[in-house]
UniProtKB/TrEMBL annotation:
Site label Transition state stabilizer, positions: 72
UniProt cofactor(s): Ca(2+); heme b
Protein name: Peroxidase
Binding, substrate: 168
Organism of provenance: Tagetes erecta
C-alpha cells in the first residue's frame, strides 16, 4: 500500500473514532438528564471516593472544626453560580474574598485530595465533585448517616465576590430565607433540613452578640432566647468582649451530627437569629417539629436527600466548564 493512502486511512479512522466518541458523550449526557449520577467515575477513577475520604478523615482527626468547615463550603459553593467549585478560585474579588466566606476553612483538604487524584487519575475528577464528596464524608465522620453522591460536575470559570449576596445571612428573616432557597429550587422543608447542618460547628460572638444585650434597641435580649440559656451565652460573649470567640451552634453537641439542633431550637436555644426564627415562625416550625425528639433517623435520612437536591443546583456538565488541574486556579 502506498504511504499516502495509508495516511488517508489513518485520517479516516481518527475521524470515525472522534465521531463515535462525540456521539457516546452526547448520549451519556442524555442518559443522566444533563445532570449528575452516582458512579460517574467508576471506570475513569474508581478510587475517587476512598481518596477523598482518607484526605477528609486525616484532616478531621487532626482538627474537628474541619468537618463543619467542609460542609459549609459545599453550601456556599452551590448557592453561588451553582456547585462548580467557584468558591475555591483565588484572586482579587473572587467569592473566597467576600465577607460571608472570610472564615471558611478546609481549603487545604480539597487541595490535598486533588493532588492525590491528579497522581492517580490525572485530569479526570472535578474540584466541584471533591467538594461534594468531602461534605458527605464530613457528615459521616461526625456521626451522620451516609448517602450516595451523584457526580459529574464540571468546574466553573467565573468567581465574583459580588455574587455572594444571595447567600443566606445570620440575620435574615424567614421570608428572606424562604425566598433565597426558593430561588435555588429548594422548598421550605429543604431549608429547615439543610440548616440542620448547624448540628455541627460554631459561630463567632460577632454574629449573634447583638441578640444578648440591646436587641433592636429594646435594652434587653431577643425574646426568642430562653431566659435560662441567656446567662450561658452572655458568659461566652460578654458585652464588649472578644467578638471572635466561637460558640457551638448546637449546644452540647457541636462535634456530633444529629437532630439535637432542632430540640435546641424548640427550647429557645438557637444561637444565631436566623436559626432561632425557624421555631418562632409557623411556616418553618412544623418542619422543626418533624425532626425533633425521637425523629432523629428521619432527620438523618432527609438530610442526605436534601444534600443531593442542593448538590444539583445549576451544575455544569458535559462540555460546560472544565476539569481544573489545580482547584485554586482555572486551567
Ligand atoms: C444583617 O446584618 C448586616 C451586617 O451587620 C446588616 O448590614 C443588615 O442590614 C442586616 N440585615 C437585616 C435584615 O437586619
Amino acid at each position: 500500500m502506498e504511504l499516502s493512502s495509508l495516511n488517508k486511512m489513518v485520517a479516516l479512522l481518527v475521524l470515525l473514532l472522534a465521531t463515535l466518541t462525540t456521539l457516546s458523550l452526547a448520549q451519556g449526557n442524555r442518559g443522566s438528564g444533563g445532570g449528575t449520577r452516582v458512579g460517574f467515575y467508576s471506570s475513569t477513577c474508581p478510587r475517587v471516593e476512598s481518596i477523598v475520604q482518607s484526605a477528609v478523615q486525616s484532616a478531621v482527626r487532626a482538627n474537628p472544626t474541619i468537618a463543619p468547615g467542609l460542609l459549609r463550603m459545599f453550601f456556599h459553593d452551590c448557592f453561588v453560580n451553582g456547585c462548580d467549585a467557584s468558591i475555591l478560585l483565588q484572586g482579587p474579588s473572587t467569592e473566597r474574598t467576600a465577607g460571608p466566606n472570610s472564615l471558611l476553612r478546609g481549603f487545604e483538604v480539597i487541595d490535598a485530595a486533588k493532588t492525590q487524584l491528579e497522581t492517580t487519575c490525572p485530569g479526570v475528577v472535578s474540584c466541584a465533585d471533591i467538594v461534594a464528596l468531602a461534605a458527605r464524608d464530613s457528615v459521616v465522620l461526625t456521626g451522620g448517616r451516609s448517602w450516595q453522591v451523584p457526580l459529574g460536575r464540571r468546574d466553573g470559570l467565573v468567581s465574583q465576590a459580588s455574587d455572594t449576596a444571595n447567600l443566606p445571612a445570620f440575620n435574615d428573616s424567614i421570608t428572606t430565607q424562604i425566598s433565597k432557597f426558593d430561588n435555588k429550587g429548594l422548598n421550605i422543608q429543604d431549608l429547615v433540613t439543610l440548616v440542620g447542618g448547624h448540628t455541627i460547628g460554631t459561630a463567632a460572638c460577632a454574629l449573634f452578640s447583638y441578640r444578648l444585650y440591646n436587641f433592636q434597641n429594646t435594652n434587653g435580649p431577643d425574646p426568642d432566647i430562653n431566659p435560662s440559656f441567656l446567662p450561658q451565652l452572655r458568659a461566652l460573649c460578654p458585652n464588649g468582649g472578644d467578638r471572635s470567640r466561637r460558640v457551638a451552634l448546637d449546644t452540647g453537641s457541636e462535634n456530633s451530627f444529629g437532630n439535637s439542633f432542632y430540640d435546641n431550637l424548640r427550647n429557645g436555644r438557637g444561637v444565631i437569629e436566623s436559626d432561632a426564627k425557624l421555631w418562632s415562625d409557623r411556616r418553618t416550625q412544623r418542619f422543626v417539629q418533624g425532626f425533633m425528639g425521637q425523629s432523629g433517623s428521619r432527620f438523618n435520612a432527609e438530610f442526605g436527600r436534601a444534600m443531593v437536591k442542593m448538590g444539583n443546583i445549576e451544575v455544569k456538565t458535559g462540555g460546560q466548564g472544565e476539569i481544573r488541574r489545580v482547584c485554586t486556579a482555572r486551567n
